[in-house]
Design a protein that fits this description.
Blueprint: E1 4-8, H1 12-24, E2 28-33, E3 41-42, E4 45-49, H2 54-58, E5 63-66, H3 75-86, E6 94-95, E7 100-101, E8 106-107, E9 112-113, E10 118-119, E11 124-125, E12 130-131, E13 136-137, E14 142-143, E15 148-149, E16 154-155, E17 160-161, E18 166-167, E19 172-173, E20 178-179, E21 184-185, E22 190-191
Parallel strand pairs: 1-2, 1-5, 2-4, 6-9, 7-10, 8-11, 9-12, 10-13, 11-14, 12-15, 13-16, 14-17, 15-18, 16-19, 17-20, 18-21, 19-22
Antiparallel strand pairs: 3-4
Length: 197
Amino acid sequence: MKPKIILVGGGGHCTSCIDVIEQENKFQIAGVVDTQKYGEHLLGYPVLGDDKDLAGLRKSYEYALVTVGQIQTSAIRIKLYQQLSLLGFSLPTIISPRAYVSKHAVILDGSIIMHDALINAHTSVGSNCIINTKALIEHDSKIGSHCHISTGAIVNGGVVVGNGVFIGSNAVVKHSVQISDNFFIRAADLFSGDENE
């Protein structure tokens, strides 16, 4: 029997996560936790309660995943990740069967690798990250924790990305660039490393 997992956050990103988890087929989704949708269903899964119910839900469920999206700031995802960790939940790594992750890459807990993403050799992805649909993380790059690499974004070789960074859809980061914590790169930007541009 597959272990059950609860998903924390019931917005649009959660629906994409549900699809990945269903296709990966390692967990059975028990339900969703959301502050505004208690009693409703999301893609057929019940909304079990809100954030205040997490301690009680921990008595029934071992696994959880943060499924709140991240655009302007990583603060909510960080808060939820820390809350789940303190409650003793296990936060697994979720990898779409349609993604390619090199056996020489490292992906830490609570991160999700979405459909058709590509993570090449000698790379690392920190905890609680979203590597979104069709994103590319090239060789020798390091992605910090609590980052969102958006749809179609390209992180070229040797890039070091700090914690809490957002890289927008179709943005391209040149090779060997270092990006400081909590930096925000807009969609379709060509980021050259000059944070004053």
